[in-house]
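Please decode residue identities from the backbone states below.
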């Protein structure tokens, strides 16, 4: 697999990673751009979280699921 895939929201190349073992995910592609609109806007997207939560959402694609996109919960501030 050599195809480069980019985030449709910010255009940054997606980083390949592996999901946490307990999540059942395999290979994932994640947008790690802290300036991505998905990540920056995730304060409003997460309705149940407290105001100062370090969690945010990053754009991700499930490689084995046909590159289906989803929002991956991730810690902010890396
Ligand atoms: Zn992005």
């Amino acid at each position: 697999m050599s195809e480069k895939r980019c985030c449709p929201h910010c255009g940054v190349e997606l980083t390949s990673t592996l999901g946490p073992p307990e999540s059942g995910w395999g290979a994932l592609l994640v947008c790690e751009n802290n300036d991505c609109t998905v990540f920056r806007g995730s304060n409003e997207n997460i309705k149940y979280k407290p105001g100062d939560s370090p969690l945010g959402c990053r754009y991700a694609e499930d490689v084995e699921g046909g590159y289906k996109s989803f929002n991956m919960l991730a810690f902010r501030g890396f």
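Observation: Residues 37-40 form the longest helix (4 residues).
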